[in-house]
Each structure stands twice: as C-alpha cells, then as structure tokens.
Design brief:
With 350 residues, the protein is α/β, with parallel strands linked by helices. It has 11 helices and 10 strands.
C-alpha cells in the first residue's frame, strides 16, 4: 500500500486504508521478448501470433500450423534478428529502452504541470511488463481515473484495438474499476505531423547524398482487413499526404508502401521490399525510408528496414540508403504525445 493511503473519513478504525485519488496515464506499445533465447522467443511469438486480432483464421486451422512448423522454426530466426539490434548494455530490446525513455520524459512534463495528482507508466500488449500488472499497479496507487494510450498514430484492429482489448480484459479482474478513457488515433494531429516533418528535414540535411524519393513504409495488413472496414490503410495514406503538404513537396518526392508481409494472403501494397528494388532499377539510386506507423524503433525498423529492405535496394543497384529513425523520445514527439494526453485529460485535470 502507498504511503499516502489513509482511512476514509467517518470510517471505523479497522477499515482498509485507501490511497489518495490520482489520475493515471498508461502508455501501451506492442511488446518484446524477454531475451533472444529459443523458449523466450517462442513464448512471445505464441502470444503474439495467437491473437485473433493479428491472425483471424479459425483456431482449428491456424493453431496446428502455429504450434507445429511456425513455432518450431521462427523463434530461431526471430532470435537471430533480435540479437543484431539487442541493447546489450541493458539486456533488453530497443523497443523496451525507448518506450521507457518516452515514459520518463512524458511523466516529467506532466508532473511539472499536475504534480502528484498524476501517475504515468507503460505496458506492453505482448510480453512484459504486462497490461494487467501495470493496471493493477496504478489502481493500487490510487488511480481512480485512467487514460489508456496505445502508441499507434494510425488505428488498426491488429494494434490499437487489441491493446484496448487487453486493457479491458485486465479491468474485468478489478473489484473497484477506475473510470477510463482510451486515446484514439492521432496521425492527423498537427504536432505529430510537424515532428515527423522535422525528422525528415534532419535526415535529409545529414544525408551524404540527397535522396531522390522518401519511402513512407507502414506495417502491412492483409488487404482483406481493408475491405472488412479497418481504416488503417486510409489513415496511412493520409499521413503521407499530410507529411508531404507540411514539407511542401510534390507527389514525385514521396510515396506510401507496406512492409512485414506474413502468410499466403495478399497484403496492402506496394510492398516496401519490392518497391525499393523497383526504385533502384528505375534509376533512383538514393532513397530515404521512414516508418510513420511506429512510435519507437523496433525489430521492424532497425532490422527489417535498415537491414533486409536496405539489402533489397542495394542488390537492385541502389547506392545510397538513408533510414530516418522513428520519433522515439525526440522532444517534438514528446510534445505531441503530451498534447494528445492533455486533450484526453480535460475535465479530469486542468
């Protein structure tokens, strides 16, 4: 129990102590394995790939495949990929390091404004720290109102929705549930677009060779999800358009692609790994790639984009590949996230 817990007024002396009421902010990102070993990777991938929001095939069809060939082989490949980017100093993935750094900065800004009336923490949808554990921590420390913030600029069922699902599942185990607000997509927030644009401007200014085109690479989804009503594709396209307008560019200088295809279905296209090769073959020997759907650098950016996709470009004759990092804990990004949080705190803290 927290040190500022007291017995309620007019309650009997043996009444359990209750912490002073506070507002909580719980940031949520995708997740990370605890380490790169086979069994830790297998446990993480099993949780991730068993999520019906991610792969919605019937369990009778998908689970035998997952528990058989996929989880027998993929943990080795994924573990090897994680090893190339692992934060050895802290013995954790870059996503864990960056999300913690983001949380620390956001907490510092919000506490400067609201003092001890607010608590800020983070959780992961898959793996640790779990949504359930972090929600329980906030409630035990007096949070009777919580803003839950999935750190995905664009909404998708496989990202924002599944994070919300897990949060509400955790709430089901609480006897005294807090009031909650979930943060919606924020891709069209001008402060977020401006932070993206600033990162592009820095990337171009420091590039050894001026890029011929900027590839905005978003994590892919099966094309079927678009036809079933998921707005992700449209929000990605609009993100690119808003970034283009903020930069003052024309259509020839920027384009939208999708990465991380998995399984036999058609996914959102064009595929990044194929498009960068086409760009090289078409004579664009210098390109830049940015990943606007990721709030923090992770395996899909540091390994997939900066290694696999770079290799595809160079093998097709490309010469100069510039990867523009995610916004991570950049101050402009933190300001955009804090502004979004404050919009969702209105009426709770002013």
């Amino acid at each position: 129990m927290t040190v500022d817990a007291t017995c309620p007024a007019h309650a009997p002396t043996d009444h359990p102590k209750v912490p002073r009421e506070k507002v909580g902010v719980l940031l949520a990102n995708l997740g990370t394995p605890d380490d790169t070993s086979y069994w830790k990777m297998r446990r993480y991938l099993n949780e991730f790939l068993s999520d019906k929001r991610v792969i919605d095939y019937p369990a009778w069809k998908w689970q035998p495949i997952l528990q058989g060939i996929v989880l027998s082989t993929r943990p080795f490949k994924s573990g090897a990929a994680y090893k190339t980017i692992w934060n050895e100093a802290k013995d954790e993935s870059p996503l864990m390091t960056i999300t913690r750094d983001q949380t620390t900065k956001i907490e510092s800004v919000l506490k400067a404004k609201f003092g001890d009336d607010i608590l800020v923490d983070f959780c992961m949808r898959y793996g640790n720290p779990s949504t359930k554990d972090k929600l329980r921590h906030l409630i035990k420390n007096g949070c009777t109102r919580i803003v839950f913030f999935p750190l995905y600029p664009q909404y998708a069922g496989a990202t924002t929705a599944t994070a919300n699902d897990q949060f509400f599942r955790a709430l089901m185990d609480e006897k005294w549930q807090p009031a909650v607000r979930t943060v919606p997509r924020y891709f069209d927030n001008p402060a977020y677009i401006d932070a993206l644009a600033q990162s592009v401007e820095r990337g171009y200014a420091s590039a050894a060779h001026q890029p011929d085109i900027l590839i905005c690479s978003y994590h892919g989804l099966p094309f079927r999800y678009l036809t079933e009503g998921d707005p992700y594709h449209c929000q990605c396209q609009k993100t690119t358009r808003l970034l283009k307008e903020r930069l003052g560019w024309d259509d020839s200088q920027i384009m939208t692609t999708f990465q991380s295809k998995f399984g036999p279905e058609e996914w959102l296209q064009p595929y990044t790994v194929e498009e960068v090769a086409r760009q090289a073959e078409a004579g664009n020997k210098s390109i830049a790639v940015i990943a606007p759907a990721f709030s923090a650098d992770c395996i899909e950016t540091l390994e997939e984009i900066n290694e696999e996709i770079r290799e595809s470009f160079e093998e097709a004759g490309g010469e100069h590949f510039t990867y523009i990092p995610c916004l991570n804990d950049d101050d402009a990004h933190i300001d955009a996230l804090v502004g979004t949080i404050e919009d969702n705190l209105k009426g709770w803290l002013n």
